[in-house]
Amino acid sequence: MLEIPKKRGFSEFAYNTPKVQERSFEITQYCLNHTILSLFTTPSMSPSTLCTASQLVIAAIWLFSLSPTLCTAWSIAPDCAAFPQVSAEMTGALNMAIYGRMRAANDPPRLGTSMADLLAAPNENDPDNLQLVQTWFENVVDAASVPSPGGIVIHCSDAHLNPTDAANRKYIDAERGNTVVIAPAPPAGITPTNNACGGFVKAFTYAAGGQQVIVLCSDSGKGSLKSSLASLDQFRTSGNLKNEQLVQAKGLNALGMYLSTMILHELMHAASFAEQLKALQPAQFPAILPDQVNNQPVGEIYQYTPISGKKLGDQTSSGQPTANNLQHNADSFALLAASWYLPPYAWLNGECKTIGAPRQAPGEYPGSPTPPGPS
Fold it and tell me: Alpha-carbon distance 20 to 120, whole Å?
């Protein structure tokens, strides 16, 4: 039986209820500390105000003692009012990260070739890659657990970004201290519109004012809010994903077409920014990957064939990117989580295969935490 090395932080999620309770307490205490700090950071407080604040603190302690889930964290901007599905799909993305974290830490052994194809791992049970996966799916949940007004905020429009040099894709976020935001550059042959989503971007993430800002584009049919599919959860316990026409045609790429997977891709970037707030360090999921190719920088890599170097169904790669680049590639982690999230299925060389019930992973692992909810 594979032994997973002990990890820094949140590692004891696997079947260890006391440790899960300890982690829940840590998150509760974190939220409570933010509540207390927010109450006592007013420049001048009268005795009566101080008394009121003290009463509020006592009330907060009582509420948190009743239910740690009362701590809210990530938030949704008002421009998402027209897209009510975003809250549920964000929760779905966090559930994928939590399940991926548990799946990497626990039996049964992972089947198929997802980790080899997406991370250039030597096999599906490689302890170093499993540890990396656990760390970063944990970091996603941690980043989403930071209470507003810090932490992650989701926008469903780029209207809050004002162009300052649209030709060079530079915009100003006036809501967050006039932060300069560099929007994604268009692919060759694409002439973008002047807005940040540019008529071609699905979604992007940036850091500003202590927040991690996820923009789900809705300006064109290519934006994630206009081009994505509904929840993957329907295939966890029912239906036959393998027989879906889209899956037969696109294989593992089909999973990347669901909004929850797109959001998880952006959450990998958000977690990377959040970790950089804690300590000076290179980004884990940058827009430009660490290893050059032919002395040229390499941007993010999307979809199965460019990531794996394989055509669907092929056993051998014609040239997979470096393991270092794939371990810093957000789409690799999002697709990996999506591929593990569906216990009845494995992905062999990018193609969907069914797993018999005796060899399936559980739909939920004991001790799995509840994802943080919206502010």
Answer: 31
Q: Kindly give the pairing relationship between strand 211-216 and strand 151-155.
A: parallel
* Cβ-based neighbours of 239, under 8 Å, separated by 6 or more: none
Would you kindly state where each structural domain of the chain is located, as residue ranges?
Answer: 11-71, 87-147+222-375
Q: Give the alpha-carbon dihedral of 314, 320, 324, 330, to 10 degrees.
A: -70
113-142 as b/e: b if 16+ CB within 10 A: bbbbbbbbbeebebeebbbbbbbbbbbbbb
Read off the tokens for 184. Answer: 């994604």
Please compute the mean of the pLDDT values over residues 8-35 and round it to a whole number: 41
Q: Within 13 Å, how many C-alpha atoms sit on residue 67's CB side?
A: 7
DSSP-derived pairing of the beta strands 211-216 and 170-173: unpaired
**CATH classification (class only), 87-147+222-375:** alpha beta
The residue length of the chain stands at 375
Q: What is the mean pLDDT of residues 283-305?
A: 97
Each residue's pLDDT tens digit, 206-233: 999 999 999 999 999 999 999 999 889 9
